[in-house]
Amino acid sequence: MQAAVLVRTGPADRAFEIRELPRPEPGDDEILIQVTAFGLNYADIMAIQGKYRDAPPLPSVLGYDVCGHVVAVGKDVNQHQVGDYVTAMTRFGGYAEYAVTGQQAAAGIPENTKPSIALALATQAATAWYCAEEVSSIYEGERVIITAAAGGVGSLVLQLAKRRKAIVYGIVSSETKEHIILNLGADGVLNRSKGDVFDQYQQYEGYRGIDILFDSAGGSYIRKGMNNLAPGGRVVGYGGSQGTNATNIFKLIAFGLSFGLYHPAPFLLEGYGLIGVNMLRLADHKPHVVHTCMAQSIQLFNEGELRPLDGQVFPISQLADAHHALKLGLVPGKIAVKW
Q1: How far is CA 311 from CA 39, 320, 329, in A?
Q2: Which fold has domain 2-122+297-338?
């Protein structure tokens, strides 16, 4: 089979080679998928920069999610059969024509689903559901801020928060994305190209604190979010995209310090919560939880209550362009790469 192999760190146009590799075989509790398309995630950007500690050693095949047909199943598989069309999370290995994954990490979807939407229903939808429905309940009338609200995860968290009748403010980087999140139901826009987003929030809410910050940027967003929480408020962090600008050890240290330093006393006195989300760890240790998150999200999708953004599909020959688009945030929604 062919696979896009990460052979060196650095710019995406020099980091990958298309190589012929042996087709993997499913284990007893695994399925083998003939990949129609694989998805890009921000962890991939960190991996090609050499900053993602969970990435396998070089040369390696990245990839957190795929969609395609099941072509083989292990002897203990009872949730899927050969011929099923599925979207699935993978523990790397997704940038290939065939990929294996555990049966609980896959879910059936209509075969005519656009690849970028099918893939959004895997890692991104599971992350959004876990953040908004499992680790932090959202109550009616709560004030919620979402970073990268026009992104794959952020746009889904936005919809889940509005489903719970929260007051939602989305952080975006352009006027085009302002329109996107307003169409999804956001109550207000915080545009980081127009100044400090927490100052903009105060223009809406005065000095009323934030009940929940859902954050994929990390760094100063976590620190400022914690400083602006209402009593009982919580910060749910699921990414560190600000860290892509840390191009040397000094900048990396500065990025780490920008998160802030915390003592447990204010958490106890004010009822604050700071929650970290790593879906790779969750899939390793609690695959049944990931399965639930995917299933619930897909059920809402099938019922028309959850709408992933359209995203964009790139051919494999434009893999570097796809990575460039992800790094710069040029595509609202999921980026898919098709064989």
Answers
A1: 11, 17, 11
A2: Quinone Oxidoreductase; Chain A, domain 1 (3.90.180)
Span 92-112, pLDDT tens digits:
999 999 999 999 999 999 999
Superfamily grouping for domain 136-276: NAD(P)-binding Rossmann-like Domain (3.40.50.720)
* 253 contact partners, CB below 8 Å, separation of at least 6: none
Spatial contact of 280 and 91, defined as CB atoms under 8 Å apart: yes
What residue ranges of the chain are covered by domains with CATH 3.90.180.10?
2-122+297-338
Residue 42: which of 124, 125, 134 has the closest Cα? 124
| Helix locations, 53-174, DSSP H | 115-119, 125-129, 152-163
3-state secondary structure 189-244: EEEHHHCCHHHHHHHHHCCCCEEEEEECCCCHHHHHHHHCEEEEEEEEECCCHHHH
Residue 131 has pLDDT above 90, yes or no: yes
**Per-residue pLDDT tens for 110-127?**
999 999 999 999 989 999
Please tell me whether the peptide bond between 59 and the residue prior to it is cis, using omega within 30 degrees of 0: yes
